[in-house]
Each structure stands twice: as C-alpha cells, then as structure tokens.
Amino acid sequence: MSHSLIHDPEGGLPRLLQIMRALRDPDTGCPWDIEQDFASIAKYSIEEAYEVADAIERADWSDLRGELGDLLLQVVFHAQIAQDRGLFDFADVANGIADKMVARHPHVFGDESRDKTAAQQTRDWEMVKAAERAARAETGTLDGVALGLPALLRAIKLQKRAARVGFDWPGTKGVLDKIAEEMAELAEAQASGDALHAEEEFGDLLFVMANLARHMKIDPEAALRRANAKFTRRFARIESLLAAQGKTPEQSDLAEMDALWNRAKAEEKGAAPAS
C-alpha cells in the first residue's frame, strides 16, 4: 500500500479512509485496530458524540473541529469493519444518507412547494419516517426507537411517538400531578425496604420528569449537562474557599460546605455573599 496519500496533509476524506484501511490491514496494521468489532467500539462512538455536544456547549470551536474529527473517525471505523466483512463500505453509508435526505426533502429536491411553515415541515418529515418504518414492517407505534439510545433520550422519543396517537397529557398540569403521585410511590417503596421496588419507582419518576421536560420544550440532556457544570463549578469554589483557610473538604463538614455553597451561588448571581 502506498503511503503517499496517508502523509498528504491536504488529503481530506480519502486520506482518512486510507489510514483506516492501513490500520485494519491484517498483515501490517495495528493489532488493537485489527481486533476491534462493531460492539467493541460502539461505546467510543457514543462518547465522541457527547464530546461534540460538550464542545458546542462550551462554544469552543477549535475543540469542536477536533471532536467532529473524532466522531467522523468512528463512522470510518465502523464502515471499514463492515467492508472487511463484505457487508458494505463507506460509499454505501454516504450514498444511503444522501438518498434519505433527498427523499425527506421533496420541497428542496423535488416538486413540492417550499411555501410551508417549520411546523408543517416537521409533520411532513414524520409522515415520511412513518412510511419508512412501515416499509421495514415496523407497524407498532414504538417500533424502531433504538434500544442503544441513552435512557433519557429514549424516554423522550418513546413519549413523542405515543403522543402522536393521542396518548399524552394535554398540558403540564397532568404531568405535575403524575410527578407528585410517583414521588409518593417512591417514598412508599423506600420505606418498605424493597430495593428492587424502589428502583422501579425511581425509574418511573425519571420517566415522568422526562415527560415534563418534553411538555416544557426543554432538552433534558442539555438541562442536566448544565446542572452538572454548575455543580462542578460551585463545588470547585467551595474547595478554593476552604483552601484559603488551609483546609480540604475532608477537614470540613456539611454545614460549613453548605454555607460555602450558598456563598458560591450568591457570587454567581452577583449578590453580596452572606457574612
């Protein structure tokens, strides 16, 4: 195999594809890359997608460029494994998604009018996807919602599908009432000492919280990422305030750290910290 393209800094996608072929070469490739299969690298594909989202959340566009490259590598890796097995290749992947985009945008690539609202386009999109599912013999309302999705995201997708056929609350009041009901059931399960029952009720509560996010048009994954970032930021402030006293969190107690948390919170909101 010639390495001239591999060492061409302007080689673009053909260069990346050849690099992956070289890495997977059974005689001269990398032992680790050769050993991988779809299942073994699936977790990395998921991680890279989240790292793309993280770069966007931080508005770090230089990092986003790198993370998009890492995500693209995962697509190339899966496609090369498929090619090695005689299933399909990268061109098939690219052509498949291109065909799908053309079919799903007849108002751009076909004869349909572009004179429609975003809401109408969304409805049309869902009709096209429903026809595609029917062609795959996926006749159930919830068929085709990928099992491998993160649980919170899958909950939203399941709820959206059910809502399309009328299985949904008309507004947030019904969801909030259900949350109160599930919280009471969780407390009862916890009090019973039945760990499996408590886990089940906790899952029910999370599912309904996801439903509330959907009704409020909140992305629960994004909301939780921001909450995680806020917690990380404020706890780091607690540590810095303790360090100024020559202490670590282990040398503190909950009351002191809670007071410092409130100070960090006040600082973020621009209020004067309590003395």
From TrEMBL:
<comment type="similarity">
    <text>Belongs to the nucleoside triphosphate pyrophosphohydrolase family.</text>
</comment>
<dbReference type="InterPro" id="IPR048011">
    <property type="entry name" value="NTP-PPase_MazG-like_C"/>
</dbReference>
<dbReference type="GO" id="GO:0046076">
    <property type="term" value="P:dTTP catabolic process"/>
</dbReference>
<dbReference type="InterPro" id="IPR011551">
    <property type="entry name" value="NTP_PyrPHydrolase_MazG"/>
</dbReference>
<dbReference type="GO" id="GO:0006950">
    <property type="term" value="P:response to stress"/>
</dbReference>
<dbReference type="GO" id="GO:0046047">
    <property type="term" value="P:TTP catabolic process"/>
</dbReference>
<dbReference type="Pfam" id="PF03819">
    <property type="entry name" value="MazG"/>
</dbReference>
<dbReference type="InterPro" id="IPR048015">
    <property type="entry name" value="NTP-PPase_MazG-like_N"/>
</dbReference>
<keyword id="KW-0378">Hydrolase</keyword>
<dbReference type="GO" id="GO:0046081">
    <property type="term" value="P:dUTP catabolic process"/>
</dbReference>
<dbReference type="GO" id="GO:0006203">
    <property type="term" value="P:dGTP catabolic process"/>
</dbReference>
<dbReference type="GO" id="GO:0046061">
    <property type="term" value="P:dATP catabolic process"/>
</dbReference>
<dbReference type="InterPro" id="IPR004518">
    <property type="entry name" value="MazG-like_dom"/>
</dbReference>
<feature type="domain" description="NTP pyrophosphohydrolase MazG-like">
    <location>
        <begin position="176"/>
        <end position="234"/>
    </location>
</feature>
<protein>
    <recommendedName>
        <fullName>Nucleoside triphosphate pyrophosphohydrolase</fullName>
        <ecNumber>3.6.1.8</ecNumber>
    </recommendedName>
</protein>
<dbReference type="GO" id="GO:0046052">
    <property type="term" value="P:UTP catabolic process"/>
</dbReference>
<dbReference type="GO" id="GO:0047693">
    <property type="term" value="F:ATP diphosphatase activity"/>
</dbReference>
<feature type="domain" description="NTP pyrophosphohydrolase MazG-like">
    <location>
        <begin position="36"/>
        <end position="109"/>
    </location>
</feature>
